[in-house]
User: What shape does this take?
Amino acid sequence: MPRRDRKAERREATRQEIVEAAWEIARERGLAQLTLREVGERIGMRAPSLYSHYGSKNAIYDAMFEQAWSECERVSLDALRSAPADPRGLVRVVALAYFDFAVADLARYQLMNQRTIPGFEPSPDAYASAVRALDEVIAVFATIGVTDRDDVEIWIAVLSGLVDQQLANDPGGHSRRKLLDRAVDMWADSVGLPPTKEPQK
Assistant: This one.
């Protein structure tokens, strides 16, 4: 049995606690209102100790960004496990999974997809999680014959636009979610995906 590094485990647990406190503040007051002092107060930690885990506020944003995209990746992979073989059905499942994930948490979506924090750029390590998620979409679309990167980019723009409209105009509602089927069919028609076959009676 390998020996457990309890010190490293405690350090990682503390880092996670810091990130969760940061998310709480961001969800309550907005991403830009995050302060290291309040994060420390939430978890009972003084600033010098906090700095030993994250050297700056942007370092916390970086950890939040990586966590958000890793969660998105997990949700997408879970959705794919139950996706039908039908190309349009597959796109619908992936679209619904992302849409529901995105609209469930405004602060998380803003950090992932909008430049709302002046001076913050995700580190290469954190950004790698976003790249992985995009690469998975590209790979999935390739399995149904969509290999033109521009087609993928158009789909991302359509889906992101519906998310943005939902969050801006009907937060907590379903008005734009109801448009996903039409959006899938419009895009699928444009890239030449075959119609979904109706089950025989």
